[in-house]
Amino acid sequence: MRRFLIPLVLPALLVTSCTFQPGASFGTLQAASLATSFEPPASRLDSDGRIKTDGGYRIHLDALKLVPRQLDFQSTSGTAAKGGKFDPANPPSGYTNCHGGHCHREDGALVDYEDIEAELAGGTLTTKTVLTLPVETPFDLLSTTATASLTQCEPGCQLDRGTWSKANFQIASLTASGTVEDPSTFNRLGGQVRSWSLTLKPAPFSQKIAVTIDRAHGERISVAARLVLTEKLWDAIDFQTLAASAGTLVLDQHEATRQQLTENLTQSAFSVKVAP
Fold first, then answer.
1. What are the pLDDT digits (tens) for 25-59?
2. DSSP SS3 for 12
3. Sequence-separated (6 or more) residues with CB below 8 Å from residue 198
């Protein structure tokens, strides 16, 4: 796939106008950035800086790293329909694992409940990716807020006319390691401090947007995306059962735990701002 670099524009040029020639684009992506952070509120930290889970455990983090893949934008066309209801616990044919307002389609796509309902009701909605911004910077979330400038555009930084309806942030992996303790009187870990690790391949984070690309809405477009990782990642994890195994607790190797971690991760906050 061809990649194009976002053109660098001096501040003085930002106030100048651009004359479009016949066949020219309807906008140009001038700047794009992605920020990620892990910011547990004070109410979720104990006096030693450990994360408090809803089950009373204490989590100490040694490492927390996110490897992103890309930020992409989609447009939707066709006719929507209403009335197609389904039970997320029993996904319709072609879909699996519904949670957090979306289902995994068999081709790997993540589809919102309302889009599935429109499909079941006989709608003819079609979704197309119109812009992809690869992210090539791994993020260490224990240092500070990690920010990357996204300088490559696929298929190009010159934008076609249309309306963007959704932004997706795709992640290659999330890895973490640390220790867990039980300070309660239940002594669920036998008084031990246990080491743990996890590796997840999260479903994409998405946000519905309504961005019109045409010459009347501004010629130069900027994108700013942000993901704040949830402090609830370790909630509802049965560390007592996991601790029956010797050695490091590899959380993602236990299916029920992996599913709970995946569900918890969807509570992270993803936002995108697109401005002329």
1. 789 999 999 999 999 999 999 999 999 999 999 99
2. helix
3. 174, 175, 176, 177, 250, 251, 252, 261
